[in-house]
Amino acid sequence: MALSPEATSGFPVLAARGGPTAQPPSSLNATLNGSQAGPAAPGSLEDEVAAGALGAVLLAMGAVGVVGNLYILVVLGRFPRAAAALRAYVASLALADLLYLLSVPFVVATYGARQWHFGDAGCRALPSLDLLTMHASSFTLVLLSAERCAAVLRPLDVARRSRRHRAALALGAWLLALLLALPMGLAVRLARRGGRAICLPAWGPRAHRAYLTLLFGTSMAGPGLAIALLYARLARAYRRAQQASPPRARRPPARRVLRLVLAIVLLFWACFLPFWAWQLLAQYRGGPPLPARAARLVNYLTTCLTYGNSCLNPVLYTLLTRNYRDLRRRPRPPAAPRRPPGPSAPELPAGGVAIPCPQPPPPPLLCPAPASRRE
User: Fold this and answer.
1) Does the pLDDT at position 294 exceed 50?
2) 111 within some domain
3) Which domain CATH number covers 144?
4) Is the model's pTM score more than 0.85?
């Protein structure tokens, strides 16, 4: 989600994470409503080709991401023991990615029409959902990193935690994200500018800049700092453990899950930091940082990056829950063959394994002792 002031009217214009660029960043109009392209006239061949190519890429990424995240949710539902300790957090991340990817058709349609066609209710709901999923993902990543850090530093405490406890934490992350997204749904309204329907928030440019800065702090800077501190603490604990153990007994601890969680966090940052840098640069820089055509290209790239995060995440989620394949492929114990009833037939327990009847020990061999010879 991004908001950018429209230089021509003085009003801030609502923009999505994947909103198209309308102007150079000096008057960045990266709106969910769409608008005219940078250097070219509206409806030009260059704009049509760019919008068509971007729409095709976004639709393909959306389809792949929706299938992947649905697959993760189905696996977690059918195999509760798959990634049992991380189940609530992985489900929260997959749900956030799925909801965000469902907005792809609306964004593609807006790119093509260059205005908003989904009414006042859609104008309020879609940007709020965008903010909700972004913050929910970020807060869940903090919980996931804290869980892995505690699993290394305080394993007994983590073992006592129940699934309900983790589910409550994930739900709390969504409620906090909802509180941050609520002002967007209350302030946005549908309006017309230049004969086009657009979504406008009810605040001025200064308040808009402050709101953008707040969103960057709550979705990226704050959670990113918390995650960095958690992993720094883990690195220090690993270093102390290596120094305290004898040289021959030093073995690197199992870090597979930690590395996967770190990969998910780094992918989130890599996909969203360029978007936020681009948006904040337009807010705090007076002149255009790039020509109009280059600005439009950068906006297209940041759009694909944000949706690409939700498209690639299911691959990492699958690695986190890969033990479900062992549960699915685990062979059942073979049934014991039936024996005719009788006194000599051994009893069979519930597991189907025969318990042999105890046999008395054989009698000792009695041999006469050899006569001793006297010399």
Assistant:
1) yes
2) yes
3) 1.20.1070.10
4) no
